[in-house]
Amino acid sequence: MRVTAILATTVFLAGCAAPPATPVKLDDTRWTLVAFAPAAGGTGELRPARPDQYRLEFLPAGRLAAQIDCNRGSGTWRSTVTEAHGGTLTLGPLALTRMLCPPDPLGQRLPQDIENVASWRLVDGRLYLDLAGQAGTYVWKPAQS
Questions:
Q1: What is the CATH number of the domain that holds 48?
Q2: Is 68 contained in some domain?
Q3: What phi and psi, each to the nearest 5 degrees, are found at residue 115?
């Protein structure tokens, strides 16, 4: 009798468990750069001088639209969702215009790092793009239209 009660309680509680989270995907999302956080031991966090000049848009069919400082470009992206709010990510190659932009350390760094992005995470509405080898993380917020 006691075993039956325990089994009934277990089955009831299992039925009350929250359903698994629906995986979030990057398709049709637009992001504005907030900061670059280097790996532990690196120099301090870098913030763009003009955040509205740094955008990524994950278009359907694996197309990527980018604005990096005063330059615009396009490339490719591919992601595999490995958890509810993240996964692996491959960006690039990225073809950019070559305008002479005002000095901004992220304008130089981001184009070099873009092909080194290895994974993504979505936490509290922000997109974290992690570089391979734990070299650092780019933090993005949803872009305003």
A1: 2.40.128.270
A2: yes
A3: -80, -5
Q: Which two tokens stand for residue 143?
A: 């872009």
Domain membership of residue 66 as a residue range: 21-142
Max intra-chain CA distance, the chain: 80
Res. 42 pLDDT band, cuts 50 70 90:
low
DSSP designation for 40? T
Is residue 35 within 8 Å of 134, Cβ to Cβ?
Answer: no
Q: List the structure tokens of 97.
A: 């215009």
Distance CA 49, CA 78 (A): 29
Residue 3 lies in a domain: no
pTM: 0.81
The sign of the CA dihedral 58, 137, 135, 105 is positive
Are 38 and 45 spatial neighbours (Cβ–Cβ below 8 Å)? yes
